[in-house]
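Forwarding the complex inputs:
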Amino acid sequence: MTMDIQQEQNGATPRLRLAGDLDIYAAASLRERLLTALRQNPQVELALEEVTEVDGAGLQVLMAAKTEALRLGVALHLSGHSRAVLNAMQLCRLTPYFGDPVLLTKEMAG
Amino acid sequence: MAKTILVVDDSASLRQVVGIALKGAGYEVIEACDGVDGLAKLGSAAKVHLIVSDVNMPNMDGITFVKEVKRKAEYKFTPIIMLTTEAEEEKKLQGQAAGAKAWVVKPFQPQQMLAAVGKLILP
Amino acid sequence: MISIDPQMEAALQTFFEESRDLLQDMESALLFMEESGADPERINAVFRAAHTIKGSAGLFGLEEVVRFTHCLENLLDRIRAGSTDLTPSRITLLLSCGDHIAEYLDKISVGAALDERFLAEDLRLLTALTEALGTTLPAPMSASVLKSEARPGPEVIPPGSVKTGNWHISLRFGVDTFRDGMDPLSFLRYLEQIGEIVGLVTLTDSLPPLAQMDAESCYLGFEISFKSDADKSQIADVFDFVKDSSTVHILPAHSQIGAYLQLIQQLPEADQHLGEILVSVGSLTEEELQKALALQDVGNQDGQHRPLGAILIAQKMVQEPVVQGALEKQQQQREQQVAERQMLRVRAADLDHLVNLVGELVIASAANSLFAMQDGAEDRVESAAHVARLVEEIRDGALHLRMIDVAEVFQRFPRVVRDMARTLGKDIRLEISGEGTELDKSMAEKITDPLMHLVRNAMDHGIESAERRRALGKPVQGCINLHACHDAGGIIIEVRDDGGGLNREKILNKAMEKGLITSEQTLGDREIYALIFAPGFSTADQVSDISGRGVGMDVVRQNIEAIRGSIEIHSTPDVGSTMRIRLPLTLSIIDGFLVKLATDTFVIPAESVEECLEYPERQGVPGYMELRDQPLPLLHLAGVFRIDGEAGKRRNVIVVRHGQHRVGMVVGAILGNQQTVIKPLGKLFDQVPGISAVTILGNGDVAPILDISALIHGHVSAKHIH
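Prediction (whole assembly, three chains):
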């Protein structure tokens, strides 16, 4: 499924809601959106509930965004990790790298 | 959601056996009988996650097919497994140059196909 | 060897059918090239046939077929590459190889053993193939022995080696990995299927800042501690597809510390940093790392390290410029062709069952219409008519499913003509025309043998010797022509030759000798030629190996008549002969023209009905009536079938045609057209001349279907002879 990025406001924090496959086909446009968001806001939330697939390219953009946020002093929070996101992060042992609280729902754990 | 694999080969029996093996492993399978058919199937399918293509086919051979696939924005990064024979080292290289970086050498056992597919995508 | 899984069984059947088609294509291409010289496209077609069969045979574990086609494919590859010529003797060899594969498949499909004769042929062909290749006979295939890496015993750890019993895997994926359709995460997941990832660190060192990164390039690297019983080649196999574009290092368990040092030095990251990663993965202990780092001369190494980026850029492949404008135009045409070529294989028995059901449906619909008419309610009649129209369409559709191209019948002949011409020592070519004409599949099967006989006959007896042809001023090469076309509700298949024609006198003499005719009879040419179809008639001067085998032309005629066909001969001395076979379109349903004789209903095949006239009670010449200034012979069906006529009642004449002959059949009332399903005759009717089959009418009555051919010929011949 092609990636769709919706921007909404969570109070003062802009929230980018990702839906669909976070893969090589989505990587370039996601990078653009993240770069813009990180440069314009003191904090950014990435909502990942509706991410259906994650590949290396998608993961790599998230990693670069996290590094960029640290460099800019922007608080980047990943939230609502879908099963696909968790699988990829755990496979690469990257959960600590992002440092976000991860909620394992029953459905995801199963 | 199960991943979809497009199997392009002019041999119906090969498609059938590969189809049985892949479906058994949990993939969805679409078949095409040559490059032209393969492009048509790519055009009509909702999403194809991996392509298995023979090199030698009538109408449009595997190399041309791979080049055409690589021109399509929605499939240019989709993994392609080329079916070659030992006698066709040159074809294999042509296929790789065109963009099919994975291969399975004919004749193969269904498990070998599953192994090659498994390295590229999960069901 | 062969799975009993029903799905696999079905796939195997597909394989047999597809291989037979491919072998047929291969044969056609070879025969064409024998005639017209080698051409790359056909050589490739032949190669592809062998290639495809080999590939599929491997999937079914048919090792013998794989082995044989492998040798064949090698030779074909040479020929394709131009390093070996396609000589006439090689064409003969390749043809024999095709036959041999066909025999392999036949034997496998019925589970027959490979007998001694077959194995001898196998050896002969393999020897010939390898000779043509200039190599020696390959050793029989044996299970390839996998060289397994010596696995270190866990109890004995050599001195100087690291403690861990796990493999260490270092991965630096190539920059084009994603663009090549590969996903590092997929390889890791696959790796998990052959062992356990005990420790893993994802390297972020080469990941550029978000602003500078190319999101489609791959910057990922991994250090992995991996626990597995797999051997090194199995682990290396996981990364086979990326081994050229990526860096993959695999260190076995308990490797020497030196090996780790080498690894640390080879990889692009700073040594100290990488070393710490190896420790955190669990592949090295802190102590081992310190020992390793102490071993190296750090100062010398740093300068040699090339940044990863540089390597990656060097490895980056230039995308081929895409210049394919001209292709676009062909694209649409091709797509259309694909749509036309897409086929569904259906079991013949299923199709027969469907056609049978449709036959019953036709009868039921006729009954329905009849009742509706008796009922008289207008809307019921109308709806019954609608159903009848739909049933008619379904019937046509169902029958069309059974139709195959006559080319499928003809495709066997090039080989037959070629081989037989050699046996006879004659130079004969075959021309085929009228492909695209369709006929019923079951009819196609039944017409092949008679056609084969006619072709053999024409080659053996029709085409003259080279000397004779030269003397007559004809081209030395004889010609056999197979032709098909549609004709008024039927199909015509012709076997023509440009030989000497039928010898009228010889046939007459022979017929008198055999007592088939008397010397007083005066016969037209066609009647004389027709005599060769009489049982036991044979004019060959000497019984030749090829056609004079006792079964003569009478069997050919019987076979053709068994499928409601007829055959006639046209011949001109020294110019040639034509055997014209006329066949109905289908065997199972006909449009019937229903007529009454007294109280009985008879069916005349509508395809032979030309027109209906009122019976003229006064005739100039008895037995004839005048039709547009031409005399039309009359046939009183009531007389033929000995039905007591209802003299005085109004009678009608149905003008029927069969071939060149036209006859007026005198009948009672005309009931009109109705679809009729042909039921074979029971034993009871078998001997009734003039009736070919029966049908069941909508009201349940049985009605005989008239055999127009027999009736006309019986009639016409009788007129002429007496």
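The domain at 15-109 of chain A is CATH 3.30.750.24 (Transcription Regulator spoIIAA).
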